[in-house]
Amino acid sequence: MPPTRESLAFDRASEYYDRTRALPADAAAAVTDLLLAELSTRERVLEIGIGTGRIGYPLYRAGLDLYGIDISAPMLDKLRAKPGGFNLPAALADSTRLPFADHGFGAAFACHVLHLIPLWRRAVAELGRVVAPGGVVLVDPGGLEKGDSATISRRFIDEIGGRRPGMQDPSELDDVFTGQGASLRSLEPVKALQKVTFGSIIDDLEAGLYSATWDASQEQRSRAAAAVRTWAEETFGPLDEERTISWDIRWRAYDLA
Q1: Looking at residue 164, what is its pLDDT?
Q2: Residue 143 has pLDDT above 70, yes or no
Q3: N or C: which terminus of the chain has fewer CB atoms within 10 Å of its end residue's CB?
Q4: Could you write out the three-class secondary structure of the chain?
Q5: pLDDT > 80? residue 131
């Protein structure tokens, strides 16, 4: 798969994004509370990669003075179609070239975004530019968590030669922020629990619902799915068995000097 210098837009995912990326209700509420505790006293908050508002929309509804940007018009259309969503200030813009003046925000946040941006260091520099000194930038880097379901996903991605186009490891992010004088805090993890079948996970990967699969053809994905189903059934047992998976949602806070 040839590398790209363009940030990965989620136009194709707009119709199914909320269905496939939604957190369990209790975990979603806990994330909202966690972020409100950090952001509610800040003047003007920016979310890069706001998309359909999976993270930002509940914060806005809770009264946060939120602004958002995204490079996908179809994703923003989904946000604006939600009750009151049209009133949330959200612009079509690139996180590596933010259309805002210096120090115009008290805080910013990004959830599962920087691994999609080849020039992610430029996006970090832009966050440092638009957030005022003494402000904070919150990041959930995303990526594959530990556990059997994540092992299956990684196996599939390895089969198709998939790769994150942007940030590869959160430690890289820590180095960039601290190199700019920021200090790192790890926020309290939020535990998420969800019932799934391993067969459904492989089905979604074969269908190309996740960005790490988008550069592969349907033929490549189907070959990978067949191989992974055989391996997963031998390793974990019946693929149609319902299982409870758990993972920790970990947000980093970078306090700007």
Answers
A1: 81
A2: no
A3: C
A4: CCCCCCCCCCHHHCCCHHHHHCCCHHHHHHHHHHHHHHHCCCCCEEEECCCCCCCHHHHHHCCCCEEEEECCHHHHHHHHCCCCHHHCCEEECCCCCCCCCCCCEEEEEEECCHHHCCCHHHHHHHHHHHEEEEEEEEEECCCCCCCHHHHHHHHHHHHHCCCCCCCCCHHHHHHHHHHCCCEEEECCCEEEEEEEEHHHHHHHHHCCCCHHHCCCCHHHHHHHHHHHHHHHHHHHCCCCCEEEEEEEECCEEEECC
A5: yes
Q: Distances in Å between the alpha carbon of 18 and those of 13, 67, 102, 163, 175? A: 9, 20, 32, 23, 32
β-strand 131-140 against 252-255: which pairing, if any?
antiparallel
Report how far residue 58's alpha carbon sits from residue 212's, in angstroms, rounded to the nearest whole number. Answer: 27
Q: How far apart are the first and last CA of the chain?
A: 40
**Domains detected in the chain:** 11-255 (3.40.50.150)
CB count within 10 Å of CB 32 equals 20
Amino acid at 9: A
Using CA atoms, how far residue 250 sits from 16, 81, 181, 242, in Å, is: 24, 29, 22, 26
Distances 163 to 12, 96, 182 between C-alpha atoms, Å: 18, 20, 28
**Beta carbons of 211 and 75 less than 8 angstroms apart:** no
Structure tokens at 194: 């969800």
Closest CA to 47 of 77, 68, 70, 75: 68
